[in-house]
């Protein structure tokens, strides 16, 4: 494959732009995080996220082009996250991409955020099909089966909270700053023992549920407080993380075996979790199934993953147009297969 893509990602609280060559060579990967300003509110406030994107987007795009040492006429296409995400946040990236594409006469490609997370793998190594992706982020917990490039089948998903959302909510209960995932991860590693919390297996389903676990943590803390007993946050963090990691690992390994995949990958912000990475690596090694976890900066939201995904879409002839809209609930659909008119709906 031969192409040069500029990608923009603004679906949540990172304003990001990146230039990627041939779907695997990162020429630049600029991420302006808003975490510092969202911290004060203990989470992402959509209106504040949008304002930040407006302030940052032009600077971030210019920096991505400058760092890549290219000019717009070198590019083959502009890619942008079309959804899912916060609609106001998405629209800022989409409008910037449209303006850029229009001004420079470039095609525009709308990318699904989760497909982007999965294609972070392509920046590390060639993807091996059939492949199983565990996507765990602040907004998503999904098991996705891919029989080839551009083919996505969601075989399991969360029925309530996303894994990252559960991490952030439990962190809040423990008075930890936003985003809570990394703090719980660190504390879990410091603990000698963990509190015993339930695991939501949902029988044979590949679906997930984390809201019961979150309630169990809240009740446990509440009970100790009422009895005037000492709370050890590290032990709560470890108990919570052990439950999340065990369920994610067990279901992923079972699905990998059931579907006979050649590779398992993990993606999304929560895949930065050391406990989860170690557990998946160990369990899949035992089964002899190759496992890839991209480096941490490619696991959390970034535009290089959007560019990598767009590179394959570009090769397949997929194009969007200037009528593109932000799709907060965009479904993960294959870009090859039955509705293969080489356009996205
Ligand atoms: O993919 P991402 O950057 O944004 C979304 O698309 O949601 O994921 C952000 C999520 C947050 O919920 C954050 O707490 C979680 O990823 N996270 C972690 C860790 N690092 C980030 N969760 C657990 N352990 C970590 N080390
Ligand atoms: Zn994400």
UniProtKB/TrEMBL annotation:
GO biological process: tRNA threonylcarbamoyladenosine modification
Binding annotation for Fe cation: 113, 117, 301
Cofactor: Fe(2+)
GO cellular component, one term: cytoplasm
Molecular function terms from GO: iron ion binding; tRNA N(6)-L-threonylcarbamoyladenine synthase activity
Domain Gcp-like: 25-307
Alphabetized SUPFAM superfamilies for the sequence: Actin-like ATPase domain
Classification via Gene3D superfamilies: 3.30.420.40
PROSITE patterns, A to Z: GLYCOPROTEASE
Main location: cytoplasm
Residue numbers binding substrate: 135-139, 168, 181, 185, 273
Subcellular location: Cytoplasm
EC number in record: 2.3.1.234
UniProt remark on cofactor binding: Binds 1 Fe(2+) ion per subunit.
InterPro entries (alphabetical): ATPase_NBD, Gcp-like_dom, KAE1/TsaD, Peptidase_M22_CS, TsaD
Keywords noted in UniProt: Acyltransferase, Cytoplasm, Iron, Metal-binding, Transferase, tRNA processing
A Pfam family recorded for this sequence: TsaD
Matching CDD domains: ASKHA_NBD_TsaD_bac
Catalysed conversion reaction: L-threonylcarbamoyladenylate + adenosine(37) in tRNA = N(6)-L-threonylcarbamoyladenosine(37) in tRNA + AMP + H(+)
Protein family membership: Belongs to the KAE1 / TsaD family.
Summary of the function given for this chain in its UniProt record: Required for the formation of a threonylcarbamoyl group on adenosine at position 37 (t(6)A37) in tRNAs that read codons beginning with adenine. Is involved in the transfer of the threonylcarbamoyl moiety of threonylcarbamoyl-AMP (TC-AMP) to the N6 group of A37, together with TsaE and TsaB. TsaD likely plays a direct catalytic role in this reaction.
Name of the protein in question: tRNA N6-adenosine threonylcarbamoyltransferase
């Amino acid at each position: 494959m031969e192409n040069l893509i500029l990608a923009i990602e603004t679906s949540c609280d990172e304003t990001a732009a990146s230039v990627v060559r041939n779907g695997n060579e990162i020429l630049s990967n600029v991420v302006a995080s808003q975490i510092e300003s969202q911290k004060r509110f203990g989470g992402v406030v959509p209106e504040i996220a949008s304002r930040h994107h407006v302030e940052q987007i032009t600077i971030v795009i210019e920096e991505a082009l400058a760092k890549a040492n290219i000019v717009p006429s070198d590019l083959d296409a502009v890619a942008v996250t079309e959804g899912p995400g916060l609609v106001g946040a998405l629209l800022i990236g989409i409008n910037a991409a449209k303006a850029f594409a229009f001004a420079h006469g470039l095609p525009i490609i709308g990318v699904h955020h989760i497909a982007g997370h999965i294609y972070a793998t392509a920046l590390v190594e060639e993807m091996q099909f059939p492949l199983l992706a565990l996507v765990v982020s602040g907004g998503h917990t999904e098991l996705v089966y891919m029989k080839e490039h551009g083919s996505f089948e969601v075989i399991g998903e969360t029925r309530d909270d996303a894994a990252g959302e559960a991490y952030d909510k439990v962190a809040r209960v423990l008075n930890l700053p936003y985003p809570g995932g990394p703090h719980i991860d660190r504390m879990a590693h410091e603990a000698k023992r963990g509190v015993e919390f339930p695991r939501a297996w949902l029988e044979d389903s590949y679906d997930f549920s984390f809201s019961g676990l979150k309630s169990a943590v809240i009740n446990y803390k509440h009970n100790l407080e009422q009895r005037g007993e000492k709370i050890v946050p590290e032990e709560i963090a470890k108990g919570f993380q052990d439950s999340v990691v065990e369920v994610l690992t067990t279901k992923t390994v079972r699905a990998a075996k059931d579907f006979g995949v050649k590779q398992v990958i993990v993606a999304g912000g929560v895949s930065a979790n050391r406990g989860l990475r170690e557990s998946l690596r160990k369990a899949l090694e035992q089964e002899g199934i190759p496992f890839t976890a991209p480096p941490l900066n490619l696991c959390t939201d970034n535009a290089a993953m959007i560019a990598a995904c767009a590179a394959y879409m570009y090769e397949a002839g997929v194009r969007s147009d200037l009528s593109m809209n932000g799709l907060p609930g965009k479904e993960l659909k294959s870009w090859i297969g039955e509705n293969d008119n080489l356009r996205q709906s």
